[in-house]
Every structure is written in C-alpha cells, then in structure tokens.
Specification:
Largest sheet: none
Radius of gyration: 23 Å
Structural class: mainly alpha
Number of helices: 18
Order of helices and strands: HHHHHHHHHHHHHHHHHH
Number of strands: 0
Distance between the termini: 25 Å
Length: 465
C-alpha cells in the first residue's frame, strides 16, 4: 500500500486535489451567501477604484505637487501588498469574516477622516499619508479575506465553482471599468472631496453586507485534516511550504507574476507611447482600455454559465494567449486604430475566460484550513512585479524603440504562457470529481479510504507544523 507521505508527494507532483462532492444535494438552495459575497466585493472594489482616481486629483489640486501626487499612490499600494501577504495566518486563525469587516470599517474611518480634517483645516500632508497607510494595510487583508467565502457560497447556492468564480471575475472587471468613470463624473461635477465621501460609504456598505450575509467557511467533509502549526511564523511557513510543493499552483502563480509585470509595462508605458507616436490622441488610451474591459466582462459572464463544461487547460491557454499576445503584434506591426481595437475586443473575450478557470483550480487545490495563508501569499507573489512594470517598459522603449519594445514584450508574454504549460503537472488542471462510492471513512478494495483525498503539499505542511 502506498504510504500517506508518498501519496501526498504524488498528488503534489501531479498538481491534483480532489474537490468535494456536492454535499448540498437534497438541501435547499441558498443564494444569500453568494449574493452577499458578490455585493460586498462590488462595493469594496468600487471604493478602491474610486479612491485611485479621486485621491491623486485631490492631492494635485490642493498641493499642486506632482511628486506628492505620486507619493500618495505609493503609500497606499505598498502597505496593501505587504499586509495582504502577511495576513494569511491571521485570516485562517481569526476567520475571514472578522478580518474583512474590520478592514472595511478601518478603511471607512480613515477615508472619511481625510475630508473631515481638510474641512476643519487640520489635514497636513504627513497626516494624509498616514491615513493612506491605514487604508492600504486594512484593505489588503480585507480583500484577501473576501475571496475565501466563494467555495462555501457556491456550494450553498448549488452552482458549479466555475460559475461563482466567473461571476466574481465579472464583478471585479465591472468595478474596474465603472469605478473610475464614477470618480471622474463626481470629481468633475462636485469635487474630489465628495468622491472621498463616496469611497468611505462604499467601504461601509461592504462591511455591512458581509456582517449580515456571510459566515466563516468550514472544512469540507472529504478533506484530509491539516495539522495546525503553533505560532504565527510557523503558520506562515505552512502556507509558503504548501505553495512551494503544489507544483501546478506554483506554476500558475509564476505565470501570473510574469504576465502581470508585462501587462503593467504595456499599460503604464507602451500603450501611451504608442498612442502618442501614432497620433491617435489621448482619448485612444481610454478607448483601448474600455473595449478590452467591455468584452472581458461579457466573456466572464458567459464563462460563469458554461465554463464547467469546457476543457480547462485548453480554454485557459487559448484565452490567455488571445488576451495577451495579438495586441502586441497588431500595434508593433503598425495596424490602424480600428484594427487594434478589433484585436483587443477578441483579446478581451479570451481574457474573460481566464479568471474563472484560475479561481476554480486554485480553490480546488488549497484545503479550506490553509486558504487564507496560501491564497493571500499567492496573490502577493503575482503582484510582486507590478511596481517594476513601468521601469521595464521604459527601458525597452529606450533601447529598442516603441515597435521593438512591443515585439519583445509580446514575445516574452508568449514564453511566459507557453513554457509553464509544457510541464506535466498542468494535466492536473482538469476538473476532478470524487468517484468513491462508499461513505467517508470506509475502505475500498484498492486500499484507499472513500471520501478522503490527499492534498498537494500535505507532507510539507505537516513537516512545517
């Protein structure tokens, strides 16, 4: 009989983890948690996007300093990433509900304090930076915690996991598209102070929705129990060891880290430089982003309905390739704006299918007791290269020119997608179902225990404990 340690190592190498059977069969369908999770995400993400527009404008109009305007974004995003990466063990121990509500309330208070102090004449720039550090440090763990409700919410709603991740992706992309538009209208019509009030209200709405509609997830009945480590650092090491041993998850995270870096180079440098050199006008930047976002939202909604019936690996790779590579080719080859927009529209359709697949695979690979520390750490790794994207884009344009930089980044994008996909663990991306017919705890003829499953990285997790 295969030893428990060997079985865990085999699942680690193949990148597979057996998901839960439909434990809710025969139980009433409950949509409250799924609707609550999506609503809270919509409110919190919209708040973040509104703040990203309103705050720099507020600083620029009140101080007139470009340097200070850039510094405020830095003081928010750096604590966001660091706090999210380190919050996983706390989320797993305290529970995502408390962390999410506390983080949203802290963001509400800090965001509302800024305009109050400004109106009373007591808002210094140093104090504003301190408030932004609070917002970033609170919002990072809160947003990370919100994602942990999704598996339990989809089970309660009795819908496929891909449907929940597809709806969640559509909400995120919609907030990213509409949030800045709302901020622009409010700032132009009433001033940036009103946009800050709206941001505070949206954070408060998110806290209210979570506190009244959601409860902390519990381990699924089929999951192998995880030996909990004692102490914060030991639990953090558990998450890191799990991510290192789960080869499929690690491969996906590394691919996303590389593509996020290249996407940032495109958005922050290559796109505006290309628009300027082709003489299309600044409005072309917004048009490019809007077309891609609109079709990706549509695709995410379609994926929510059909993704569970599609081959995951093929859809993921095709969608990622369409969403990433053709835009660089079209722009580098000197295509007219209308053709570039058409290519981006198709790319958005492909990109919209990626997040539902990634989300479903991620939730299946990570056992519930480790969701917080593994998922937040993985997300922090995928964001690690974003601050350097602008530097990469600027360096490539300086060395190779705009067209050359587009060709280089497009080629790197293709390599980032294709090379990891050649590894054998990517076969583990296929959807898996528990085939054991017997009740949990019974021994089958092949010596395996029905209703249980080893998880990738289990051996490493136990060693860390």
């Amino acid at each position: 009989m295969t030893s428990r340690h060997a079985t865990a190592q085999q699942t680690t190498d193949s990148g597979t983890c057996t998901p839960s059977p439909d434990a809710s069969a025969g139980e009433p369908r409950v949509l409250r948690a799924l609707v609550g999770m999506l609503s809270a995400n919509a409110a919190a993400l919209s708040a973040n996007r509104v703040l990203s527009i309103a705050l720099p404008w507020f600083v620029l109009t009140t101080t007139g300093s470009v340097g200070k305007t850039g510094l405020v974004a830095f003081c928010q995003i750096v604590p966001y990433v660091i706090a999210q990466a380190l919050a996983g063990p706390v989320i797993d121990r305290v529970g995502p509900k408390r962390i999410s509500v506390a983080g949203d309330l802290a963001s509400t208070v800090a965001t509302a304090t800024a305009p109050l102090l400004y109106l009373t004449g007591h808002l210094s720039f140093g104090l504003l930076l301190g408030l932004l550090v609070v917002v970033g440090a609170a919002d990072g763990p809160a947003n990370g915690a919100k994602g942990l409700f999704l598996p339990a919410a989809t089970r309660a709603a009795r819908v496929p996991l891909e449907r929940g991740t597809g709806l969640s992706a559509a909400v995120e992309r919609t907030a990213t598209t509409i949030g800045p538009a709302i901020a622009g209208v409010v700032v132009a019509s009433f001033g940036s102070l009103y946009a800050l009030w709206i941001t505070a209200c949206l954070f408060g709405v998110s806290a209210l929705v979570i506190s009244t509609t959601l409860s902390d997830p519990v381990p699924e009945p089929h999951e192998t129990p995880i030996e909990e480590a004692e102490g914060y650092l030991s639990r953090l090491r558990q998450g890191a060891e799990f991510l290192r041993e789960a080869k499929l998850l690690r491969s996906i995270v590394c691919m996303l880290a590389a593509t996020n870096l290249l996407d940032q180079a495109f958005m922050s440098v290559l796109l505006p430089v290309w628009v300027k050199e082709t003489g299309n006008g600044a409005e072309a930047v917004g048009l490019v982003v809007s077309v891609f976002a609109a079709t990706s939202i549509l695709a995410a909604l379609v994926a929510a309905g059909v993704a569970e019936r599609l081959p995951r690996r093929a859809v993921y790779l095709i969608g990622f390739t369409l969403g990433g590579v053709p835009r660089f080719v079209a722009m580098a080859a000197g295509a007219p704006l209308w053709l570039v927009l058409a290519v981006l529209a198709v790319g958005g359709l492909g990109s919209g299918f990626v997040n539902p697949i990634v989300g479903a695979v991620t939730y299946e690979l990570i056992p519930t007791p480790l969701l917080g520390r593994v998922k937040t750490l993985a997300q922090a790794v995928t964001w690690a290269g974003i601050p350097f994207g602008g530097l990469l884009g600027a360096g490539l344009v300086t060395v190779a020119g705009t067209s050359g930089a587009l060709w280089i980044v497009g080629g790197l994008y293709l390599v980032a997608i294709g090379v990891p996909a050649l590894n054998r663990e990517w076969a583990g991306m296929r959807k898996r179902a528990v085939s054991d017919a017997g009740p949990a705890g019974t021994v089958r003829g092949d010596g395996r225990v029905a209703g249980t499953a080893s998880v990738p990285g289990e051996a490493a997790v136990k060693a860390a404990a």
